[in-house]
Design brief:
With 135 residues, the protein is mostly beta strands. It has a single domain (13-19, 26-115), classed as Beta Barrel (Thrombin, subunit H), CATH 2.40.10. It is 0% helix and 62% strand. The protein has no helices and six strands. It has a six-stranded antiparallel beta barrel. A hairpin with a 7-residue loop joins β5 (91-99) and β6. The radius of gyration is 20 Å and the shape is globular. Residues 119-127 and 131-135 have low confidence and may be disordered.
């Protein structure tokens, strides 16, 4: 049961990818399962990992893992599976797990990850003191 229906205040679309073969090539075709459904998006935690490689005075960082975990709550729907994608504005969330709390078929909790991209302005190198811009 939805505790507070007013929390479902964001419109999202749910997309599933289906593998298909066109002209001998495997492709993934996105099918919109549900468009403009109400949802609540709750950030869980952010996770970042970096590997630093030092050499000849330059510190180069290489992102290992940079993703944000969220829980998306929607009304119960059929046909949503792990591997589906949830679109909200410019965010694309990959569904990792689906939970039907208390097996009531009233809500679904979608546990998703969003990969964040972000490198330093100099393209993976740590900026030197002369490269740091201050107003």
């Amino acid at each position: 049961m939805i505790q507070n229906i007013g929390r479902l205040n964001k419109k999202v679309s749910v997309i599933s990818g289906e593998a298909a073969e066109y002209g001998g090539f495997d492709t993934v075709k996105d099918n919109v399962l549900y468009e403009n459904i109400w949802a609540d998006i709750i950030p869980m935690k952010g996770r970042e990992g970096y590997e630093t490689m030092k050499g000849r005075g330059n510190n180069v960082i290489k992102p290992i893992k940079n993703e944000e975990e969220v829980k998306i709550i929607i009304r119960y729907r059929d046909n949503i599976t792990e591997g589906a994608k949830v679109l909200y504005k410019k965010h694309i969330y990959n569904v990792k797990s689906i939970v039907d709390p208390d097996m009531e078929h009233s809500v679904l909790e979608l546990y998703c990850t969003e990969k964040k991209r972000g490198l330093t302005p100099s393209g993976n190198k740590l900026p030197t003191e002369s490269e740091v811009w201050e107003p």
